[in-house]
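WARN retry 2 of 3 for item q-0093 after timeout on previous attempt; input resubmitted unchanged.
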Amino acid sequence: MGSLDDFIIQTPTAEFEFAGDEGPETETGTDTPPTAVPEEQAPSISIPQPNLTTILINTTATSRLLINISYNPGNPPGLLTWRKNGRIVSSRTDPRVNILSGGGISVRSVVPSDRGHYMVTASNRLGNQSEVFLVFVTCEL
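OK item q-0093 returned
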């Protein structure tokens, strides 16, 4: 027959915190289940409108260009970049520009030079997606 130590079964331990002498036990730590890690995914852009946007400028009123998109930043979160005719456009490059919280773009006080190809690109290390909008600006007479 073996010694008493041969019959001891070791079980995992958990730390407990007691809430006073008469309170219930609450588990604090070493045996907590792992938290779920979100699955990695590339960012994506959805377009709720056609890719062709036409803006008419009325010389007596202020016009605004508004392109709405649906942006999923992906995981890890990606970067969203707007370009006009190949150059980055933002409120830093033009104070009339506002990048909207959902990823869209707004340009106040539209002028004929605002015409061109607007491209939005969402990217992270898993991939990227771009959409192009052709914007025409005409003046009403």
